[in-house]
Structure formats: structure tokens, C-alpha cells
Amino acid sequence: MRFGAIGYLDRNDFSHWGVPPHWDDAAGYGAWMKEARRFRKALAEIGGGRAPRIVFEHPGEATIPTSVFVCAPGGMVVICAGTSGYSAMVDLRYQWVMQKRLQGSHGTNDEQARAYNDLVRAKRIDPALGEVVPFHEIGRAHHDMANGIEVFGNRVALVGAADADQGASP
């Protein structure tokens, strides 16, 4: 594919998720680390042998220790949410010694989302729509993306609308 993901890993194939055991549980920490290294190796194979310089972290508590571990030295972990919990623990050795950064990010709050939508409706922002599909064609759209069939711009699916103009402001 020219745009988008270059591969994926099924996290169910790995067993090290969550907070690593503390250092005084040498056996538990060793098992966690072995599995985290296996995950990092599988991720690097997808990335052409390189660790990712930017990791987008969404789940939070269940995955941030791994995200910091796999991120390249000098790289950044962008925290977008904490759906599995907000009390994330990180092995600071992999954070500060390797000069990795944590960066918070979010899309919008409700007020900002309304403002963005108003700008799109006023045609002051072009969302660069390449394809609008009815809800029942989502499977085909995903299949096309998986097979590298590109459209210029974003693909979007209509949810609860019969056509792309339904609900649009005059």
C-alpha cells in the first residue's frame, strides 16, 4: 500500500500486556520482558527492521509499558486515550535513558468538533473526500483498502443517512 498501514499484529498472539511485574519478581519480569521483546521483534519485521519513531498509544494502562519499550530511541509515544485505564506505569529506564518522549493528543472536545463541522459546512475546510459509501458497503471499502485500491482523499461511510447531502446545511 502506498498510504496507510504496512502491516499489523494481533495482540492476542502475545501475553505480556499490562503492567510488568516489579523487579523483585525476577521470574515474572523475565517472562514479561521475553514476550515484550518477541512483540518488538515482530513489529520491527513489519517496519523493515526498524523500531517505530512514533507510537500512537490508545488503550493506555494495558499497553503503554509496551509502547514505550518498542518506541525507537529518541522517539515519541503519542497518548490519544486511556480506554483500558488511566493509571499507566512505565519502566522509566526505557523512557529517560533512551530519550523517549510522551506527548498528549486528542482530536477535539465537543465545542471544537462543532466548530470544525461548521467550517466544513461553510466550505472553509475541505475534508478531501475521495469516496463516500453507503453503510452496507463498508466491507467492500475495507477490502479495497486492504488490497491497496486507493482513492484520492479519505473514505467515509454514511451512517444513518441515505446520501451524502442528507443533513447538509444549505
From TrEMBL:
It holds the Pfam family ADH_zinc_N. InterPro entries: ADH-like_C, NAD(P)-bd_dom_sf. Residues 34-119 form the Alcohol dehydrogenase-like C-terminal domain. This is Alcohol dehydrogenase-like C-terminal domain-containing protein. It comes from Actinomadura meridiana. The lineage of its organism: Bacteria, Bacillati, Actinomycetota, Actinomycetes, Streptosporangiales.
